[in-house]
UniProtKB/TrEMBL annotation:
PANTHER family: CYCLASE (PTHR34861:SF10), PTHR34861
GO biological process terms held by the UniProt record: L-tryptophan catabolic process to kynurenine
Top-level taxon of origin: Bacteria
One example GO MF annotation: arylformamidase activity
Protein name: Cyclase
Species assigned in the record: Streptomyces cinnamoneus
Length: 314
């Protein structure tokens, strides 16, 4: 695979430059300001067309295993507790094994989906909905429930480390719009309207091989300007194997500029901390980087997100 020149360094955006970018993307995404945001692009015709991506029937997970042990990037791990085991009762007859599960959905380790109510920016949610709709009892608008019928469409994986000839991008590195365009060319695939775009930076492979680190302080992700590519193509969903945002932030005064642009301005549901180490070799072997993708968030009517296990069907 041919190496693609690495940017000299993340070009920082001033607050004023970010505001211009935000307003431009907001204007270009006027079609996606409804309750479902950019999911409106997933019309029945596009879902039906996505099923034609299936050729072998092979299924591959895009999720990482849920972690129950603490680590540098996971100080509040999921809690799994057995509430009943067959051995707890010595008598004969019928018994059931039972357990309970609790999770910090928006952590830096577990695969999850961000709903459109997740980002509050300048006092509003996506589409100008008042931030007061997020109450101590939950989100009264734009919760993960808007995706209760699932998210099904044509998935496209763009592998930026493959493009650059490296196993992963180092923390602090960023993906540009040029990277995304070059990855398309190298992989002979085109991102189109209504696609579910997945961008690999190699976060999971680095974590698996070198161990966990404090990803809140240092991680690879998209540069805010790369969102111009997504607006041009009118994608429906963005997912990454990191947080999608680079850390440290490349934008003055805003820690998560990609989240602001994607969720608040463009109406994109985000998938954070996926893993593509199972999918990428399959795509490489089959010589194709598009597939049917099925995402089924839990039905949590007032929640700002959900754990997910997206499935690629090739």
């Amino acid at each position: 695979m041919a190496a693609h020149a690495r940017p000299a360094g993340p070009p920082r955006l001033t607050a004023a430059e970010f505001d211009v970018l935000y307003r431009r993307l907001l204007s270009r995404s006027a079609w996606a300001r409804g309750e479902r945001g950019a999911l409106d692009a997933l019309t029945p015709a596009r879902v039906l067309a996505a099923t034609r991506e299936v050729r072998t029937g092979r299924t591959v997970t895009l999720a990482a295993p849920v972690e129950t042990l603490p680590g540098p990037d996971n100080p509040e791990p999921a809690r799994h507790r057995m509430t009943g085991r067959p051995g707890d009762d010595a008598s004969g007859g019928l018994h059931f094994a039972r357990d309970s599960f609790a999770m910090n959905v928006h952590g830096d380790a577990d695969s999850h989906l961000d709903a459109l109510c997740h980002v509050i920016y300048d006092g509003t949610l996506h589409g100008g909905v008042s931030a007061s709709s997020v109450t101590p009892g939950g989100a009264e608008a734009l919760s993960v429930e808007v995706a209760h019928d699932g998210i099904v469409g044509r998935g496209v994986l763009l592998d930026v480390p493959r493009l650059r000839g490296v196993p992963w991008l180092e923390p602090g590195d960023h993906v540009s719009a040029d990277d995304l365009t070059a990855a398309e060319t190298a992989q002979h695939v085109h991102v189109g309207e209504g696609d579910l775009l997945f961008v690999r930076v190699g976060h999971r492979r680095r974590r698996n091989e070198l161990g966990a680190w404090h990803a809140a302080d240092a991680r690879a992700g998209l540069h805010p300007s790369a969102m111009e590519f997504l607006a041009e193509r009118r994608v429906a969903v963005l997912g990454g194997d990191g947080n999608n945002d680079t850390a440290p932030s490349s934008t003055e005064g805003i820690g998560f500029p990609v989240h602001v642009l994607a969720i608040h301005a463009m109406g994109l549901h985000l998938l954070d901390y996926l893993q593509f180490e199972d999918l990428a070799p399959v795509c490489e072997a089959e010589g194709r980087w598009s597939f049917l993708c099925v995402i089924a968030p839990l039905r949590l009517p007032d929640a700002t997100g959900s754990p997910v296990n997206p499935i690629a069907v090739l």
